[in-house]
Write a structure and sequence with these properties.
58% helix, 0% strand
């Protein structure tokens, strides 16, 4: 063991630098709990993509699905009433906004479910959640925190804890040469 019980790190700076790029091993129960959180959060993102793309009838009726020619961002952005509604409403239904949103939801959801690219998923998911949080200001139930802030925080927890290692493809993913060269792909 390289760390003694007083908390003093006896590793060399080279060893410390090398090991800090990889998450420490988690206790088995914590790894499983984070895997469950990862998969559940992944289904939130992936479900939003699928419902808007296919019109599964939950938030999006079939006749307004992306495949039926609907605009995935029109409903949400078009109905904003908050402080920044004027800035976000003109973006509703623009092709680049629809494509960015849909591909972002697909990529983040897939990465979380598979347990790969969690750092990139945290960045992308935080961008999506941050913009949705900003567009909904002022918040109705709390002055600062809503589900968007919670989801973004959970994304970073999962990425920094290496939550793809349990019940995911994170171990195999981290062995890929490109992932070893480009650390933020972990």
């Amino acid at each position: 063991m390289t760390v003694i019980e007083t908390g003093v790190d006896t590793r060399t700076s080279e060893t410390t630098a090398r090991s800090s790029a990889r998450p420490a091993a988690l206790p088995a129960a914590a790894g499983k709990a984070l895997a469950v959180l990862r998969i559940l959060l992944g289904t939130v993102f992936l479900w939003a993509f699928l419902d808007k793309a296919l019109g599964l009838g939950f938030a999006t009726p079939a006749n307004k699905s992306w495949l039926a020619g609907g605009e995935p961002t029109s409903g949400y952005l078009g109905s904003l009433e908050g402080a920044f509604a004027g800035a976000f409403q003109p973006l509703a239904g623009q092709a680049w906004v629809d494509w960015s949103f849909m591909l972002g939801m697909l990529a983040v959801g897939s990465a979380l479910i598979l347990g790969i690219g969690l750092r990139a998923a945290a960045v992308g998911g935080t961008l999506i959640m941050g913009l949705m949080w900003l567009s909904s200001l002022p918040l109705k139930n709390h002055p600062v925190v809503d589900e968007h802030a919670i989801y973004a925080s959970a994304l970073w927890l999962l990425a920094l804890a290496g939550a793809g290692q349990v019940w995911g493809l994170g171990k195999a993913w981290s062995r890929l040469p490109i992932v070893q060269r480009i650390g933020w792909l972990r």
